[in-house]
Amino acid sequence: MIKLIGILIIIIGFLLKLDTIAVVLTAGVITGIVGGLGFGEILETLGEAFITNRYMTIFFVTLPIIGLLEKYGLKERAASLISNLKAATTGKILSFYMVLRTIAAALSLRIGGHVEFIRPLIYPMAEGAAKNKYGELSEEETEDIKGLSASVENYANFYGQNVFIAAGGVLLIVGTLNELGVEVSEKDVSKAAIPIAIIGIILAVIQFRIFDRKLEKSKNKN
Amino acid sequence: MALEFLYILAGIVSLLTSIYAFKDKELKTRFGTGLFWLLLAITFILGELIPAKLVGIIVLIMGILTATGQVKVGNFKETTSEFKEKKSKEFGNKIFIPVLSIAFFAFVIGQFTSLGGLVGLGIGAIVATISGLIITKAKTKEALYEGNRLLQQVGPFSILPQLLAALGALFNAAGVGEVIASGISKAIPADNIIFGSIAYCLGMAVFTMIMGNGFAAFTVITAGIGIPFVYNQGADPAIAGALALTAGYCGTLLTPMAANFNIVPAAVLEMEDKNKVIKTQAPIAILMLVIHIILMIVWAF
């Protein structure tokens, strides 16, 4: 049981809104100690994982160009493109992206990303559509649109990816089960992932529609 | 090799940010901020050349810097919205070419070569930077400055995914997963497929929330709970397996431990509330988890 102390530290740290990085490091070091690792071993595990997981931070290389294009009006252009579509709403744009991104994930097409797509293109379009219709937005409404724009990327990516027969997740399922003596093929697993991909799209579209309605209601009141 | 080259490029972006921070006279914590980005740059540029123990020490120092409030966002020359509007009219839709070329190269290289999508993303970023500089006729220095601005806005959160992966490695080394799996398996009756399905899906979601990673959860929870309570009871392995992993992803949507999906995007989109992405996703994630449990009971058996 004492081994779970790291989880407790994380939960308390997040609840008290302490510095996240310090909380994570503390939890890691203490878990290592109660798990019987020496301090040298802890440092080594920490350092090794940090280096091998550098790929998670590779988006740094896209920052200069995204920043430059923003300076030269990328977001404004994305918003004005949307203003030509009179019927566009935040929810419709996000729904369209949800379908497109799920299909891309299912085909293992690498389209998407919060830094590469959501910030420069999808969010400005989603916000632009709302501004186009209602004029200025409150801070809370902008924050809501940001939240939805970030979520759509995750929904589509997570629930769509295993439809692809050679997705990392499919290979993991087959590999793990075979090792445990349960026979299963990649083809069957990827087929079994289809219903969840479709349900994911449906629920996301409903959430986006609810937002559209809520926005319409609050704007009509004023 | 190609990937190491990209890590060096990423390190250079961090190094530039470090230099800009050190030179930022108005930033009170410029020394700590500059040091943070410098240390990160070193781990990226030198990478595996540094002994792992030393990297561990570097990471702890970075943690001390953020814990003591030494890493802050600097001051930037903001571009006026008049300038942005004017330029966006001037360039028209040409401005989209660089952004789309990132996606295009990531796709083509990931799909048709053995280099992989990450290398594709990097090559795409290089092509995008060159084409972007040509289209906007901007100076290279402007791009570097804007890259520094974005990186400081995202801030120390940008290293959280790597740190959490390291935490997961420590959890694994200490055997945290086995404790959880055995705890859950003691609590449920062995021959009840309803309890079994609930325990498997819920176990996946909860353990993924703790580890921040559905893959790590799948191996532990499948061995500890899936095999005795679901597969050995006659579940279709393809269906139960596929559902279990995406049940884990429901947990990913709910946890700050999956920082690259939930916390970094909040910083990237400059949200006030860093948990906003999780709060937005919560209703969908919980509903999806319930659907997973129901599907496992009625469809896998």
Automatic annotation (TrEMBL), chain A:
Organism phylogeny: Bacteria, Bacillati, Bacillota, Tissierellia, Tissierellales
InterPro entries for this protein: DUF969 (IPR010374)
Transmembrane segments: 7-35, 55-74, 192-211
Keywords: Membrane, Transmembrane, Transmembrane helix
The protein, known as: DUF969 domain-containing protein
Organism (species): Anaerosalibacter bizertensis
Pfam families: DUF969
UniProtKB/TrEMBL annotation, chain B:
Entry's transmembrane regions: 6-22, 34-50, 56-74, 95-112, 118-136, 215-232, 238-261, 282-300
Any Pfam family hit: DUF979
The keyword Transmembrane helix appears for this protein: yes
Alphabetized UniProt keyword annotations: Membrane, Transmembrane, Transmembrane helix
ATP-binding among keywords: no
Domain of life: Bacteria
InterPro entries named among the record's database cross-references: DUF979 (IPR009323)
Protein name, per record: DUF979 domain-containing protein
